[in-house]
Design brief:
Structural class: alpha+beta
Largest sheet: 5 strands, antiparallel
Number of strands: 5
Distance between the termini: 11 Å
Strand content: 15-25%
Length: about 140
């Protein structure tokens, strides 16, 4: 079990019968999105392909967000929510990535042995936050 996290265009769905409004993130693939070679022993890391969704485990997202200082800033583990992405959010991710690189100067982003999955995740989030801000009318991140 874990999270489903999508970053991109927020689409509103309105059920006119019961008045319910739901939000989903439109699924997209972008040719320029970062991808990494998969390790032979773990064919299903959090981030694969060129899509805008990730599926981290609860413990994996906790480890990532705590290690990078993003837990209290961007990740609300107490609820499932859809939140607008702002320029400041992208700046926070960039600062976290810059700090990670400063603290781990020999890191290489990726999933294989001797590669840094945290740097890969920071790179992925940075790409998709920037993409959403530049390409979406309603740029958002959704946790479920």
């Amino acid at each position: 079990m874990g999270y489903n996290i999508g970053i991109g265009e927020a689409i509103l769905h309105v059920d006119k019968n019961d008045g319910q409004i739901t939000v989903e993130i439109e699924r997209v693939e972008v040719a320029e999105a970062p991808v990494w070679e998969l390790p032979e022993n773990d064919p299903f890391p959090d981030l694969v392909g060129k899509g805008n969704f990730t599926y981290p485990s609860y413990s994996g997202l906790e480890r990532f967000s705590t290690a990078t200082g993003l837990k209290d800033v961007l990740f609300n583990f107490d609820s499932t929510a859809t939140t607008l992405i702002k320029e400041d959010d992208l700046k926070i991710i960039r600062r976290a990535k810059e700090q990670w690189i400063t603290d781990h100067p020999k890191s290489i982003a990726g999933w294989r042995s001797n590669e840094d999955d945290i740097l890969a995740k920071l790179t992925w989030y940075e790409f998709w936050f920037e993409w959403a801000l530049n390409n979406c009318k309603i740029p958002a991140i959704q946790y479920s």
